[in-house]
Amino acid sequence: MTRSKEIKDRLFECIHNGELENEDLLEIWSHIGNDILNLQTITSYKNKHKCAYNGVKFKKNLRGYLQKKEYIVDNE
């Protein structure tokens, strides 16, 4: 088992056991989303990089979804 899988599994275990408060989860999410992954919506990414919406849509960036909204990872 890789170290990252061990960390992920342990985090999920702590969450499901109620060992983390909502404030902790928000802090983790904020740190990962803003500081590490630099998550951006397609519109935000498009505006920042001054390119067309379809150019962003078909670019090969890592993407993820949160509440049916698509986010682009821009941490390069």
Structural description of this entry:
With 76 residues, this protein is an alpha+beta fold. The chain folds into 2 domains: 1-36, no CATH class; 38-76. The protein is 55% helix and 13% strand. The chain has 4 helices and 3 strands. It has helices spanning 3-16, 22-36, 42-49, 53-57; strands at residues 40-41, 63-66, 69-72. The chain is elongated. The relative contact order is 0.13.
In short:
The protein is an alpha+beta fold.
| Terminal-residue CA separation | 27 Å
- Give me the oligomer status: single chain
Number of strands: 3
Percent of residues in beta strands? 5-15%
What sequence of helices (H) and strands (E) makes up the elements? HHEHHEE
Overall pLDDT level = 89
Q: Ranges with pLDDT <50 over ≥5 residues? A: none
Keywords, please?
76 residues; single chain; 2 domains; 55% helix; 4 helices; three-stranded antiparallel sheet; alpha+beta
Question: How would the blueprint of this fold be written?
Answer:
Blueprint lengths: L2 H14 L5 H15 L3 E2 H8 L3 H5 L5 E4 L2 E4 L4
Antiparallel strand pairs: 1-3, 2-3
